[in-house]
Amino acid sequence: MDTWGPYKVSTHDGHKYFLTIVDDFSRGTWTYLLKTKSNAFPVLKQFLALVERQFNSKVKIVRSDNAKELGSSLSNSDFFSSQGILHQTSCVATPQQNGIVERKHKHLLETCRALLFQSNLPLIYWGECLLTATHIINRLPSRILNFQTPYQILFSKPPNYHSFRNFGCLCYASTLSQHRSKLDPRAVKCVFIGYPFNQKGYKLLNLSTRTIFVSRDVKFHEDIFPFLTSSSHTPLFPSNNHIFFDISTSSIPGAVHSSYFRIRLSLHLLIIRLMITLLLF
After folding, report:
1. Angstrom distance (rounded) from CA 111 to CA 195
2. Distances from the Cα of 182 to the Cαs of 89, 168, 172, 190, in angstroms?
3. Same domain assignment for residues 151 and 22
4. Predicted local distance difference test score (pLDDT) of residue 208
5. What integer pLDDT is reported at residue 234 of this predicted model?
6. Please, are residues 156 and 198 in contact by the beta-carbon 8 Å criterion?
7. Domain limits for position 121
8. Exposed/middle/buried for 47, CB within 10 Å: 0-12, 13-18, 19+?
9. In terms of DSSP bridges, do strands 86-89 and 61-64 run parallel, antiparallel, or are they unpaired?
10. β-sheet bridge partners, residue 2
11. CA-to-CA distance for 161 and 205, rounded, in angstroms?
12. Residue 193 phi, psi dihedral angles, 5° rounding
């Protein structure tokens, strides 16, 4: 396990850190958003209780670096001792001794970054990208696991991919019938931002109110991403940039000479626009 942060931009609900826990056997990954590093150990205690209840198993060994928030302090060490848990720590400036979770951080951040680039969501939603990245990674086959998924090893059944949707895509969520009149809209315009924990639905961002909610009745448009800038959809050759040839005056030598320079000027302008477009890409 390990913590990451602080990030320069807080999430929409004030988180700047996250705690990553990786199961050494199944490579199952859990990520928890944190507002401060001091919240890490209480979250770890909750995770230990979760494992004991849901998987009927008790954690025997915990491995981390020498961070105080992860058990190196005296009070936290006393807790591990009282529970019979061995706390293994890496040597100073030796992150490779905690390599599994360090590599998992790299994998999580790369996937999170890809989701951000695809959706172009504001940075305050990086926490939702991270949680979605964790959800996806736990359901991807791994060579280390003989091309099984962490989900399959943990729950002894294959994951369900039918609920997967393009992160950041446009969607419409059905409004509740008891709160609408005959002439009110039947759906609200939203953006898909993830999968909620312990709920069979989709986590959505209302584009009008910027509030996050969970809904089951959703219509997706997975090829449309509302937060992408309009410049990214402009064609390479805009329709209003034409090269005009003055055919009616081409028989006049002076007119041919002036038309020649107009054509050259239009070509130069087109080349400049192409160069600017390529630089923007």
Report:
1. 15
2. 63, 30, 18, 22
3. yes
4. 94
5. 45
6. no
7. 2-155
8. middle
9. parallel
10. 20
11. 22
12. -130, 15
| Cβ–Cβ < 8 Å for 182, 203 | no
Q: Which residues, given as ranges, of the chain have pLDDT below 50? A: 230-257, 260
Helices 74-83, 40-54: crossing angle, 10 deg rounding: 10
Mean pLDDT of the chain: 86
Distance CA 103, CA 29 (A): 12
The closest alpha carbon to 16, from 36, 30, 1, 38, belongs to 36
CA distances from 116 to 5, 107, 221, 227 (A): 18, 14, 18, 10
Strand, helix or coil for residue 86: strand
Give, in degrees to the nearest 5, the angle at Cα 117 between 135 and 222: 65
Does one domain contain both 141 and 256? no
Which residues lie across from 172 on neighbouring strands? 189, 219
Q: Are 271 and 148 part of one and the same domain? A: no
Which tokens go with 107? 């994998």
pLDDT digit string, tens, across residues 24-76: 999 999 999 999 999 999 999 999 999 999 999 999 999 999 888 887 788 88
Q: Taking the CA atoms of 130, 131, 132 and 137 in sequence, report the sign of the dihedral they define.
A: positive
Instruction: For residues 197 and 144, state if they share a domain.
Output: no
Query: pLDDT tens, 96-106?
Result: 999 999 999 99
Percent of the chain with pLDDT over 90: 70
Q: What is the CATH number of the domain that holds 76?
A: 3.30.420.10
Please choose, from the candidates 51, 70, 54, the residue with its C-alpha nearest in 3D space to the C-alpha of residue 62: 70
Closest CA to 62 of 42, 82, 48: 48
